[in-house]
Amino acid sequence: MASMRILGTGSYVPPKVLTNYDLVKMGLDTSHEWIVQRTGISERRMADPDVATSDLACEASVKALDMAGMSPQDIDLIILATITPDTCCPAGANWLQAKLEADQAVTFDVTAACSGFIFALNVAEQYLKAGTYRYILVAAAEVMTRTVNWKDRATCILWGDGAGAAVVTWADSGPEILSTHTHTDGKNGQDLLLPGGGSKTTPISHESVDKGLHYLTMIEANQSFRVAVRHFVESIKEAVSSNGLTVEDVDWFIPHQANLRMFHSIAKSLKIPMEKFYVTIHKYGNISGASCAIALDEAVRDGSIKKGHLVCMPVFGGGLTWGSALIRWE
Ligand code: COA
């Protein structure tokens, strides 16, 4: 049956590694043990100062296109999921299009924080179903380390940089995206906030910088943890039940990688063995929307995902946003 199929995946993380020990050396009042115990993160990747989000997205996209056996000129639409675009205007996807020399492609960004990759896949699905576009490049990329306050030990330990991508089409063979689900709760979206530069605050100014408005802030991180787990659990249930399947049918869970303790809570709640979680958080931290796209690509390339496997990708992020993709790897 014709449906949304994945033709290729790709990912890229910058080579520079920032370990927990490096953070301590930078003068942060923390320890490797505390970070590992509370988050599961040992290290994260950091883009060099001259590297922008579209550079990371371009590397991941080239790999996805290569796996698909396609060139950038075959792509009709590029959707970039990001909350750290190169510039507010033009869209990050436009910079990516220029770097790929995919002049024929229509481009735009999707802003859904850590849920971005799944939201972008959901948008792609609508265009493919309608027959508007044939080949769509869905990328998710972030330079999160440029948004953090390195003096705020509660948040700066969490984030990293990187990109993931997938080429999708409407066809009747290949890895099948059985469903995508997306949800938003704007009323409670202010707990993860990057206020600076937006129209609600003053434009970038000495005053806004002095107030630290250009930093990502996280209010009630504890509360955010509980809300995230609840939505992860709901999203998994929604993904399987809408396809007439059960949690036990799933071979791999590839959630947004926010905190390893969240995986343990999800596992406990749904009685899922921890071995079914594909984990990258220990080496990359939280790369917002790119996290699950990178994990998917790594799971494909290292052979963890095999033919016939059912892959569930639940996500949760600032906004609030949450949802899932369920994929049968054929
Ligand atoms: N190193 C050492 N101590 C730290 C620390 C750090 N990096 N960060 C915070 N602490 C301290 C706090 O100051 C606090 O000290 P106190 O008890 O003396 O006041 C103590 O550790 C506990 O802080 P708390 O915030 O309760 O820790 P936590 O167990 O909730 O872990 C997070 C903090 C941020 C790791 C965790 O809440 C989390 O992951 N939240 C979810 C955030 C998230 O990912 N949201 C979704 C986005 S997609």
Summarize the structure.
The chain has 10 helices and 13 strands.
Q: What is the CATH architecture descriptor of the largest domain? A: 3-Layer(aba) Sandwich
Q: Approximately how much helix is present in the residues?
A: 25-40%
**C-alpha geometry:** globular
Discrete helix count: 10
Q: Could you state the order of secondary-structure elements as H and E? A: EEHHEHEHEHEEEEHEHEHHHEE
The CATH superfamily of the largest domain bears the name: Thiolase/Chalcone synthase
Please give the radius of gyration in angstroms: 19 Å
CATH class of the largest domain: Alpha Beta
The figure for the number of domains is 2
Class by SSE composition: alpha/beta
What is the residue-mean pLDDT, rounded to a whole number? 96
